[in-house]
Structure formats: C-alpha cells, structure tokens
Design a protein that fits this description.
mainly alpha, 4 helices, 83% helix, disordered N terminus
C-alpha cells in the first residue's frame, strides 16, 4: 500500500512537468509561426502603404488576413496535436479566424493610437501591436480550439 501512495506522489509532479514541457514547446512553435505570420503581415502591410499608397486600415486588414492564413496552416501542422474541432476544418478555421478578427480589432485600435494620435512610424507601431495581439490570440485559440474535448 505504501508503494501505491509513493507512486501517486511522485507520478503527479512528473506528469505536471511533462505538461509544462509540452506547453512550452507549443508556445515556442506558435511563437515561431507567429513570427513568420508577422513577417508576411508586415510585408503586405508595408507594400500596400508604401508601394500602392493604400490607407493603413485597408493595408492592416490585408496583412492580417495573409498572416492569419499562414499561421492557421502552420499551427495545425506543426504546433498543436490536440484539436477540439479536428473533424470539422471549416468550423475550426472559422473559430481560428474569429480569434484573429478580435486581434485585428485590437490591432486597429493600437495602430490608430500609435499612428494617428502619437505620429509614430506605421511599421514600428504595427510591430508593437503585434506583441499585444500575439498574446491575446494565443490565449483565445488555446481556449477555443487547441484543447482536449470533454468527451475525448
């Protein structure tokens, strides 16, 4: 009986450490994917503003859509093995994109404040806004999509 008690005591911390390790790997991979998505987003944004002369709200939207698509494909392929909507890709992408739309709204607010109110360079503001958006989107996506389902 003492043996079973010891196994429970020692198994729980190891299991917790393993979960933390998995979460850290996922976060690191998501960070890398987000960096690639940010590069695409920023390139599209900058090209639209600087080369095409488009307004920053339109440029930010197009850049965000391009980055979101890249990050979704990367996330389901390389980051998350547990997916609540694995069997329904259209619904999964819709939820992934919905978190992105929340992030887009947040990004637009931050861009407005940085560019219009503070007069900062658009690319600098965009990169700063990306950090805030990264954390909010990661959290929403974990909660909505990349978790075990209750019946699994």
């Amino acid at each position: 009986m003492g043996m079973a008690s010891d196994q429970v005591v020692f198994a729980t911390p190891r299991r917790g450490i393993a979960r933390v390790a998995v979460a850290a790997r996922q976060f690191a991979r998501y960070f890398v994917g987000s960096g690639a998505a940010l590069a695409v987003d920023t390139a599209v944004f900058s090209a639209c503003v600087r080369l095409l002369g488009w307004s920053w709200p339109v440029a930010a939207t197009l850049g965000f859509v391009a980055g979101t698509l890249l990050l979704y494909l990367y996330s389901i392929r390389y980051v998350f093995s547990t997916r609540a909507m694995r069997d329904n890709l259209p619904a999964e992408f819709a939820h992934f994109a919905a978190a992105g739309v929340f992030g887009l709204g947040l990004t637009q607010i931050l861009l407005y404040v940085g560019i219009e109110m503070l007069g900062s360079p658009p690319e600098l503001v965009r990169i700063g806004a990306a950090g805030v958006t990264f954390l909010s989107n990661y959290t929403l996506r974990i909660l909505l999509l990349f978790r075990k389902t209750s019946h699994a």
